[in-house]
TrEMBL record:
Major location (coarse): membrane
Taxonomy of the source species: Eukaryota, Metazoa, Chordata, Craniata, Vertebrata
GO annotation, cellular component aspect: membrane
Membrane topology: Multi-pass membrane protein
Protein's name in the database: Transmembrane protein 184C
InterPro entries membership: Ostalpha/TMEM184C (IPR005178)
Organism listed in the record: Monopterus albus
Length: 413
C-alpha cells in the first residue's frame, strides 16, 4: 500500500535531518584525519574551507527540492523549478570534487557546464508553461501585443514579427545553447586529452580561446532571447515574479563563466604566475582550483537566494493522494524535452524548406504563392511528366517537396 502525500510530509523532515546528521558524523572525522595526515598546505586549507560551504549549501538546496516534491501540485511549473534547483548542489559538489582531486577537474567541469545549458532551457520552459496555462491562445495574444524592437546591440536589425515567429525564435535561441554548450564541452574534453586545449591561455594557437568565444556568443544570444520574451510579455508574467528568478539563473551562469575568463586574464598578465603555485602542479591548476574554490562559496549564497526565489509555498495546497514516489519519478521524465527538441527540429526543417523553395523560385524553376508552387513549362513542354518524375503535383501545398529537396535539383532537357 503506497504511502500518501500526507504521510510523506510527516516523516520527510525527520528523515532528512537524520540522514544529514549521519553524513556529517561520517565525513567530518575523515576531513580532520586528512588534514592531520598531510602537511597542511594552501591546497588542503582551500578544499577544507570549500567543504564547509558545501555542507552548508546542500541541505538548503535539498530542502527546497524536497518541499517541491512533497507539494507537487502543479507539475508543469514545478518540474522545471526542481531541475533549476538542482543546479546549486551539482555546481557545489562538482567544484568541491574538482578542487579536492585536481586530476578530475576537467571531467567534473564537463558535467557542470552541460548542466548550465540545461538550466537555461528549463527556465524558458517554466515561463512558457505558465503562459500556456494562463493564456491558452498565447500566439494570438502575442500577435496583438505592441511590436517589440530589438535591444542593443541588435537594435538596427528588423524586429521579429509578434506572434508565432517571435515565440519560435526565442525558443530556438535558447535551445541552440543547450546544443552548443554540450558540444563545445565535449570538444574541450577531447582537446584536453589530446594536449591542445591549454585552459586559461589567451592564444589562438590552442582550442581554449576559440571555445570561449563560441560559448560566450551562444550564451549571450540565449540570454538575449529570454530578455526579449520577457519584455514582450512582462505584464502577463508579473504573477510569477520572473525578474528575481531570471537574475538567480543569470548570475550563477554568467558569474561562473566570466570569473573563469577573469582568472585566465590574471594568468595571462602574470598576476597568477609560476612563482606562487602553492600546492598545485602548475599555474593552470591554480587557476582552475581558484575558480572551483570561489564557486563553492558562491553556491552557498545562491542556495539562499534560490530558497526564497523559487519557494514551494505558492504550491502548498490540498492535493490528491498518490504514491510518495510519483513526484520523484516525474522529475526524471524527460519526455517533454524530447518533444520540444523534436518540435524545434521540425520547425527548422520547414523553415529550411521554405528557404530552398525561395531559392528555386529565384532560379525560375518554381513560382511560389502562399506556400503553393507550380512547375513552369520548359521548352514548350507540359510539366506533367517532369512533375511525375519529381513526385510533385503541378499545383499543391508542398507534398513531395522534401523528396525533391533530398533528391537534388532535376535538370529539364
Amino acid at each position: 500500500m503506497p504511502c500518501s502525500c500526507a504521510e510523506w510530509r510527516r516523516w520527510i523532515r525527520p528523515l532528512v535531518l537524520l540522514l544529514y546528521a549521519l553524513l556529517l558524523v561520517a565525513v567530518l572525522p575523515l576531513c580532520i584525519w586528512e588534514l592531520q595526515k598531510d602537511k597542511v598546505g594552501t591546497h588542503s586549507k582551500a578544499w577544507f574551507i570549500a567543504g564547509v560551504f558545501v555542507f552548508l549549501t546542500i541541505p538548503i538546496s535539498l530542502w527546497g527540492i524536497l518541499q517541491h516534491m512533497v507539494h507537487y501540485t502543479q507539475p508543469e511549473l514545478q518540474k522545471p523549478i526542481i531541475r533549476i534547483l538542482w543546479m546549486v548542489p551539482i555546481y557545489s559538489l562538482d567544484s568541491f570534487l574538482a578542487l579536492r582531486y585536481p586530476s578530475l577537474a576537467i571531467y567534473a567541469d564537463t558535467c557542470r557546464e552541460c548542466y548550465e545549458a540545461y538550466v537555461i532551457y528549463n527556465f524558458l520552459v517554466f515561463l512558457l508553461n505558465f503562459l500556456s496555462n494562463q493564456y491558452p491562445s498565447l500566439v494570438l495574444m502575442l500577435e496583438v501585443q505592441q511590436q517589440q524592437p530589438h535591444l542593443p546591440p541588435l537594435c538596427c536589425c528588423p524586429p521579429w514579427p509578434m506572434g508565432e515567429v517571435l515565440l519560435f525564435r526565442c525558443k530556438l535561441g535558447v535551445l541552440q545553447y543547450t546544443v552548443v554548450r554540450p558540444v563545445t564541452t565535449v570538444i574541450a574534453l577531447i582537446c584536453q586529452l589530446c594536449g591542445v586545449y591549454d585552459e586559461a591561455n589567451f592564444s589562438f594557437r590552442t582550442a581554449w580561446s576559440y571555445l570561449v568565444i563560441i560559448n560566450n556568443i551562444s550564451q549571450l544570444f540565449a540570454m538575449y532571447c529570454l530578455v526579449l520574451l520577457y519584455r514582450a510579455l512582462r505584464e502577463e508574467l508579473a504573477p510569477i515574479r520572473p525578474v528575481g528568478k531570471f537574475l538567480c539563473v543569470k548570475l550563477v551562469v554568467f558569474v561562473s563563466f566570466w570569473q573563469a575568463v577573469l582568472i585566465a586574464f590574471l594568468v595571462k598578465v602574470g598576476v597568477i604566475s609560476d612563482k606562487h603555485t602553492w600546492d598545485w602542479d602548475s599555474v593552470e591548476a591554480v587557476a582552475t582550483g581558484l575558480q572551483d574554490f570561489i564557486i563553492c562559496i558562491e553556491m552557498f549564497l545562491a542556495a539562499i537566494a534560490h530558497h526564497y526565489t523559487f519557494t514551494y509555498k505558492p504550491y502548498v495546497q490540498e492535493a490528491e493522494e498518490g504514491s510518495c514516489f510519483d513526484s520523484f519519478l516525474a522529475m526524471w521524465d524527460f519526455s517533454d524535452i524530447r518533444a520540444d527538441v523534436t518540435e524545434q527540429v521540425r520547425h527548422v526543417g520547414e523553415s529550411l524548406t521554405v528557404v530552398m523553395m525561395n531559392f528555386l523560385t529565384s532560379m525560375g524553376l518554381f513560382c511560389l504563392t502562399s506556400l503553393q508552387y507550380r512547375v513552369p513549362q520548359i521548352h514548350g513542354r507540359e510539366p506533367c511528366s517532369c512533375v511525375t518524375r519529381l513526385g510533385l503535383s503541378p499545383l499543391g501545398s508542398g507534398q513531395g517537396l522534401q523528396g525533391f529537396v533530398a533528391g537534388g535539383l532535376f535538370i529539364y532537357l
